[in-house]
# Entry
Amino acid sequence: MVVKEIPYFDLSEICDSGQCFRMERITENEFQIRAEDKYLRATQEGETVRFDCSEEEFETFWKYYFDLERDYGIYIEAIDPEDTYLKTAAELGSGIRILNQDLWEMIVSFLISQQNNIFRIRKCIDRISRRYGEEKRAADGTVYHAFPTAEALSQATEEELRDCNLGYRAKYVRDTALRVASGEVDLAVIRKMTYPEARGELLKLYGVGVKVADCICLMALHELSAFPVDTHIRQALEKHYPGGFPAKRYGGMEGVLQQYIFYYELIHKE
# Structure
């Protein structure tokens, strides 16, 4: 068990922020997170967070995954004090952090996310993980499945992927899995690219448009200049920033602010 006092960190807000699809609420304050081939239970009371893992695993994986070495207070303090909308959105989602997630997992996740909602995305990813991911057992005995590798998904037919409720997105996932598994697409090379270069390479993948490419760049490559625009964000920008979002003012932190806006719009929609 690892216990930390962490400001600007809220498991509930992160869970509902739309950036991770294998994090689930167990109780009001307890969550389970599956990332790559790892499993974690975490609870939170105020700023006190308990991570049910060894100190070594926390230091080598989860600290980086949750981006805990970055001061998110700096981003909130940088917001224009006259921008009451953005300040309110940031206050509501002040515990959100941009997770450092696996590139392959994010490519598949955001291919599946198209024309989909968070609940259905989670169900789809759970199905393919159970069907094609390696079965694992956590230290507490919990059985879970690692996210399926490109090699594993490349063996699935389009029809089999459709059976996992992927719908038309099945052809996107299968084509990308085949290209990654064969080495035609080298994820290690993409990881080393600049944001514009990586975005351009991702746009070459079947089914990847600008929004999906930006989501992958933000959530997997941690390119904080990426600002994915979906329907919720577009509507918010049209309403609150008719002259355009002041991206130049917030250079290098646009992606963090996008998450505050997305979370605010998601909560107020409900």
